[in-house]
What does this fold into?
Amino acid sequence: METPGFLPMARLQTLIDTLIDDGFRCVAPQVRDGAILYDTLDKVKQLPKGVTQEQSNGRYRLHQTDSTRNFAWANGPQAIKPLTFAPREELWYSEVKSDGSLKFYQAPTETEPVAILGVRACDLAALALQDQHFQHSFPDPYYDARRKRLLLIAVHCTHPAETCFCASTGDGPEARSGYDLSLYETDLGYFVTAGSLAGEMLLHRLPLEAGDAALFAAARGETGAAADAQQRQLPEGDLQAMLFGNLNHPQWQAVAERCLSCGNCTQVCPTCFCHSENSVPSISGQSTAHERQWDSCFSPGHSYIHGITLRKDTASRYRQWLTHKFGSWHEQYGRSGCVGCGRCISWCPVGIDPTEELAVICKDSAGDSA
Ligand code: SF4
Ligand code: SF4
It folds into this structure.
């Protein structure tokens, strides 16, 4: 790759100012309540400069260092999913008119342009999967409106967490597609590349300097080292066949003895799209809002159909999560539903790691062990 233009660390504010001048709400990672989360930002000093993190099974801690870097950390609990697939939103509402008739209204869609700075490769891959679901398989006007307003500025990952395995799923640490602009971070500044026409136009308005080829090679080398540093991986082979060939494996019960069925793993997962819909009547009884909110295959209500809860116990719920995410997603969307972000490992209160569970279950892939 040719050496891209270089944006010195001291000029990063220019990128943010340009986005705001263009009418975008700039959203970027910031420290909130001991974690790195995405929130509205207008000053570069709001970025988590020098912050790094430590993650392992059921553990997440931030540490402050002397580093000049703003993106020397791996993803926190929150993906960019809430910016396209809202955790809770009104879809439509109805009201009784004065003549007694009933009128229905569709809730307005959001159109405010949003630029997200600092998106990681795994979250871009997750966004592509959510696009398949919400824009193609089940077109959703609310998702579509939010998705179309996004400008995505990726930062290639150089500091994977101990829980990351994006190299194993083929989704990172270097972002390869799905962004408008991408940044390779160094101690001195950023090498900037464009991934779309909008990104190209933005890039030409930035005060870029000629980049140093050796420094760029070192920056790219850091993303390669980030891949090499990852210890976890998915089992090799046909995961769908291995999982569905082991539906009665004793490990489902073994994991159920540890799993709290809390659903944290599905809430932090950037690809999970399960949701429920509810009607919320007003206290006057004259109107009703119809809302959608995130749900989880770990909630009893999610498998409740006509008076029967199909997945009554934790073993069957955990099996549903793993066989769908790593198995039948292949049929549905041509690949696994996991992008290797590792969030479900760090944010599981009892530290369950799906890569470990898969390794046990798939080891006996020769046949159903029951
Ligand atoms: S299953 Fe876990 S590691 Fe895979 S994308 Fe979801 S949260 Fe990330
Ligand atoms: S695997 Fe962990 S995070 Fe997921 S439901 Fe079970 S206890 Fe909760």
User: Anything to note?
Assistant: The chain has two domains: 5-89+111-228, 239-284+295-363. The pocket of iron/sulfur cluster (ligand 1) is lined by residues 268-271, 325, 338-344, 354 (CB under 6 Å).
